[in-house]
Amino acid sequence: MSGHVVIEASGIRLRERAHEFDFRLAEGEIVGLAGLEGHGQAAFLEALAGHRPPSVGSITIADGAARHAITDAHAAYRHGVVYLAQDRKSEGIFPSLSILDNFRILTLGEASRLGVVSSRRAREAFERHRQRLDIVLSGPNAPITSLSGGNQQKVLLARLLEAQPRVMLLNDPTRGVDYPTRLALFAVFEQLAVEADVSIVVLSTEIDEIISHSHRAVVFREGAPRVELGRNELTREAILAGMFGLEAPDGSPESAR
Amino acid sequence: MTALAVRRSFGAGAGMVVTLLVVLLVVNAFLNPARLAPAGILTTLGLAAPLMLAALATTPSILSGGGGIDISIGPMIGFINVVMVTFLFGNGFESPIVVVPLVLALGALLGAVNGFLVAYVRLQPIVATLGTYLVFFGITPWIQPRPGGDAPEWLLRLGDDFALVPLVFVGILWFAIWRTPLYAYLMAMGGSAKAAYTSGVEVARVKLLAYALGGVIAAVAAFALTALIGSADPNIGPPITLKAIAAVALGGVSLAGGRGGFIGAGVGALVIFSLELALTGTGASTFVLQMIFGLVLVAAVLFNALVARRR
Predict the structure, then answer these.
(1) B4–A91: do the CB atoms touch at under 8 Å?
(2) Looking at residues B163-181, what average pLDDT do you find?
(3) What is this structure's pTM?
(4) Within a domain: residue B279?
């Protein structure tokens, strides 16, 4: 991946006494994040999304010719960064709202004419995503809580897609999702990366997902990347070695620092 | 918006509140038939309008969730009443073309100050608006120590023949907002502030707008109040807060945010007003009234909690 750099983090530190590091995300690239729980990979994703700016260093996003600092969640969104939360129940869905309202909450501003929300347009847009993502539901006005976990996740994904993002930050998108849906979700991610040059950073607790779907992987340990693996270096052993802070069996992966 | 939204805008205990209202109306019709007769109905509505509007003014901040509430609404209405009568009418500015935009802008500004303290300074809403409550409470008698002053003829007519005008104005305002993204953001935020933030909704700005909207409606309430009393009264504002919050809670608006709406709040205010009307008709003292409003507030919140738990 030698495309145009979209997000650039330089000299960021995620927590006290952790190493500072740099990170670059290219257009159309899919980067997998791995690590034992609590080793900084989730904090890193949240930092990229503007939820928790790092204490040291800066994160910027290219928008046209200019670069903008990502300082908060809305700033990130304005420049085309969307985020899918890990905890779907408390940070993803709006449990009191309908499926359609959950879908359109991000894009209400764009979907309105002269400040008035157009329900018809939202319904049409939702229908397109429903077909593409194969969402199973009784009707768009049913409560979001009436859907299965996998279908809720698809509605959230539809919400992000409708915003036509340039960067998608996905925090364990397949958690609590059945196997066929997992494959379907990653098929969509790969298609977006190839066809629309969308850059994707995906954190997964499933090592196999990272191996089969990402262009490169960053393995976190103690608040910073421990190893960075290119496409040809992506093996289960190498990722596990990075997670546990061991030398990889064949000693090939270079250190990210 | 959607059918779900319509149901939500009335709240969970709609049946109970409407039943209560009907019972109270029957009691009032029995105690004082002239009040509800066609000839007197607009005057009665003019009497009810300040409280109804105060309840509506309290609603947006509560809907925004996260402990959102504007308890300064009562003294704010009193402050606007005194400013309007003393500074505008007292200096000969009586034309509605001048007065109406100025007063609405003042309301928006006062509400926005509350919103700024809550959304950007990040004070707890109840603390921030208790602060502004006390400021309005203190500054109002300083401008106008005793009841006095006059109101122009056009304004006085809003107290009887044209009593519907302020209510319809706010109704249209709310209907317009209901169809904009602001309303959906407000309800979403009240339902789950965390999800709203992580998905990129501009939470702080929506909060600021909710409080500013409350301020604008408080200004309309100040018009209705001034129309009713025809003068400035430094003591009339503060007691409105408790009644307005009781009305909102009674109308099925969840004090936790995200659930309820304007229709419910308005009906809740009508119940409180009818209760007040019936009790004053029997000669109960204002102390008894205050006590009953307090009991209604506790009972309404309890009832809402029970309904919510059963879901």
Answers:
(1) no
(2) 92
(3) 0.84
(4) no
